[in-house]
């Protein structure tokens, strides 16, 4: 039976919850005196050998928690698992270790690895509903879909929004309108939402969405960068696609643009009149140059001129 365990994967919420469960159950059974925490970036091989070679204090097990895979050589990792005390368990947690390193490869080969992946959509929807139920509320399926579009599937972000929404609606079911009104989109969520709205020609909705996001504390410079990125992608797709049928998968690979963006922007790029798009690009470039050279001034305390540029960009988008 392995004495070394490695928790990894993109689902940091599930990873953290499982690690917490381990800690709670271990402390209950073996007492806090037999639990040790170490930082993987700082721990030295000599320290880890000493700590993993110590017998438990009046208990059956000793647990050594390490946050981050230690920066060891392959040979040093071999020394760890060859000299570990029979009653010691090592648990390493690292969402994204550098698998190119020899020490990391060795830990992956000798440890019992548990990878935490983002849940499947059906599992995630069930979890969202149970999370709201635990807060004494309920959430409509359309609200779950809207929240996922805005926030993404990271449970760390979702759980905060769900708790906030459950508290705000005071017992009634959370609706899609509630989510639109109160949820704080992730950067990725802002990208996809604005792209979808502008590509569909729904400029008034894009305008309101941008203002709600900024009013809740969203970064105006981040919003400007998102809009310029969307325009860059739109221009590249327009130049590459022409007017005929296009293999979207090949286009995404050729342009190094996310397939979701291709799917939203391709019909828009083929629909937009080239002269209008050219004038729009010139306007956006001139605005960005003026912003970067100080002709427009914007700070966190006084973002008005940048906000005006954002409004102008959205309302001037080619139809």
Could you list some keywords that capture this structure?
319 residues, single chain, 15 helices, 5 strands, 61% helix, five-stranded parallel sheet, alpha/beta
Characterization of this structure:
It is built from 15 helices and 5 strands. It has helices at 12-30, 45-52, 74-83, 102-110, 121-134, 141-151, 155-169, 176-182, 187-199, 203-215, 220-241, 248-255, 259-271, 274-292, 304-316, and strands spanning 4-8, 35-39, 62-67, 88-93, 112-115. Helix 2 (45-52) links the parallel strand 2 and strand 3 (62-67). Helix 9 (187-199) packs antiparallel against helix 10 (203-215). The longest helix is centred in the last third of the chain and has 22 residues, at 220-241. The N and C termini lie far apart (64 Å).
Topology, please?
Layout: E1 4-8, H1 12-30, E2 35-39, H2 45-52, E3 62-67, H3 74-83, E4 88-93, H4 102-110, E5 112-115, H5 121-134, H6 141-151, H7 155-169, H8 176-182, H9 187-199, H10 203-215, H11 220-241, H12 248-255, H13 259-271, H14 274-292, H15 304-316
Parallel strand pairs: 1-4, 1-5, 2-3, 3-4
Helix pairs in contact: 2-3, 3-4, 6-8, 6-9, 9-10, 9-11, 9-13, 11-13, 11-14, 11-15, 12-13, 14-15
What is the residue-mean pLDDT, rounded to a whole number? 90
Residue windows where pLDDT falls under 50 for at least 5 positions: none
SS content category: alpha/beta
Gross morphology is elongated
The rounded Rg comes to 26 Å
Element-level helix/strand string: EHEHEHEHEHHHHHHHHHHH
Strand order, sheet with most strands: 2-3-4-1-5
- How much beta, percentage-wise? 5-15%
- N-C termini distance: 64 Å
The percentage helix is: 55-70%
- Count the DSSP helices: 15
Total number of beta strands: 5
Biggest pleated-sheet summary: 5 strands, parallel
């Amino acid at each position: 039976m392995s004495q070394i365990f490695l928790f990894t994967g993109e689902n940091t919420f599930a990873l953290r919850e499982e690690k917490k469960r381990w800690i709670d159950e271990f402390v209950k059974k073996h007492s806090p005196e037999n639990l040790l925490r170490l930082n993987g970036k700082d721990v030295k091989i000599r320290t880890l050998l000493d700590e993993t070679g110590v017998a438990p204090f009046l208990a059956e097990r000793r647990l050594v928690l390490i946050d981050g895979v230690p920066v060891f050589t392959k040979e040093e990792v071999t020394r760890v698992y060859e000299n570990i005390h029979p009653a010691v368990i090592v648990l390493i947690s690292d969402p994204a270790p550098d698998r190119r390193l020899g020490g990391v490869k060795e830990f992956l080969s000798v440890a019992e690895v548990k990878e935490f992946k983002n849940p499947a959509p059906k599992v995630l929807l069930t979890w969202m509903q149970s999370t709201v139920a635990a807060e004494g509320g309920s959430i409509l399926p359309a609200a779950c879909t809207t929240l996922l579009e805005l926030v993404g599937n990271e449970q760390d972000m979702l759980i905060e929004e769900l708790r906030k929404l459950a508290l705000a609606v005071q017992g009634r079911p959370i609706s899609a309108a509630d989510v639109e009104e109160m949820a704080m989109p992730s950067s990725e969520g802002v990208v996809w939402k604005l792209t979808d709205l502008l590509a569909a020609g729904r400029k008034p909705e894009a305008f309101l969405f941008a203002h709600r996001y900024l009013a809740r504390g969203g970064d105006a410079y981040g919003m400007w960068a998102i809009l310029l990125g969307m325009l860059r992608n739109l221009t590249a797709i327009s130049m590459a696609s022409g007017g005929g049928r296009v293999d979207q998968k090949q286009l995404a690979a050729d342009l190094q643009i996310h397939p979701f963006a291709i799917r939203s922007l391709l019909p828009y790029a083929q629909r937009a009149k080239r002269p209008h798009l050219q004038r729009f690009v010139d306007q956006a470039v001139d605005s960005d140059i003026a912003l970067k050279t100080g002709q427009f001034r914007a700070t966190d305390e006084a973002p008005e001129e940048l906000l005006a540029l954002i409004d102008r960009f959205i309302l001037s988008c080619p139809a």
